[in-house]
Amino acid sequence: MENELKKMKFYESLILLALVASGQCFPKPYDEDVSYAYDFPFMSRSDWGARPPVRTVRLSLPVPYVIIHHSYIPGPCSTTNQCINAMRSMQNSHQLHQGWDDIGYSFAVGGDGVVYEGRGWNNVGAHALGYNFNSIGIVLIGDFVSRLPPRRQLNAAKRLIAKGVELGHISRNYNLLGHRQVTPTECPGNALFREITTWDRFTNYNM
């Protein structure tokens, strides 16, 4: 297992180097006025005060995978102010402490029922080793090992996926996976994982 993970990381590094060399890395391709596209509560990067990415790599769309995570830390947020702080905390952890280019996830969903833009639809994430170049990563903010997220948080995640399909960013034949199915981890927590097994397009797949 460890050797396989090292191989996947090596191959992802090669792909990244090739994209950099070909000029497919862009400084800041985020659309700062994207909330118009959504019929549910949505906060762009500028809305929650995101720091600019170090660099970005274009994601080839539509993607065939949607991967669900829980943040574990930070814990659940129930108000928009709490969720904004959680987003900033995750970006600080990923970018400043782990040395990543940006917050790792494509999107986050708070307990307030709001979807928060992470790396967005167009950029390669850093959330599931071996799948970053062909997936959208959605994190539900909180620890969902033993309890479910509130219904509005679950519904917002489902609506985001449906909107991604509608906009052509996610393949209509996408596969829905929990993080634990592609990486040795307990994420997205036992309770949340059991929940997503009932969602449309869930795929019974293990690495």
Automatic annotation (TrEMBL):
Question: Pfam families from the entry?
Answer: Amidase_2 (PF01510)
The leader peptide range reads 1-25
Q: Is Disulfide bond tagged as a keyword?
A: yes
| Single biological process term from Gene Ontology | peptidoglycan catabolic process
Q: Which residues form the Peptidoglycan recognition protein family domain?
A: 40-183
Q: Which Gene3D superfamilies match?
A: Peptidoglycan recognition protein-like
Gene Ontology MF terms = N-acetylmuramoyl-L-alanine amidase activity; peptidoglycan binding; zinc ion binding
Disulfide-bonded cysteines: 77-83
Domain (N-acetylmuramoyl-L-alanine amidase) ranges? 52-189
Q: Which keywords describe this protein according to UniProt? A: Disulfide bond, Immunity, Innate immunity, Signal
Oligomer and partners: Monomer.
The family note in this entry says:
Belongs to the N-acetylmuramoyl-L-alanine amidase 2 family.
This protein is called: Peptidoglycan-recognition protein
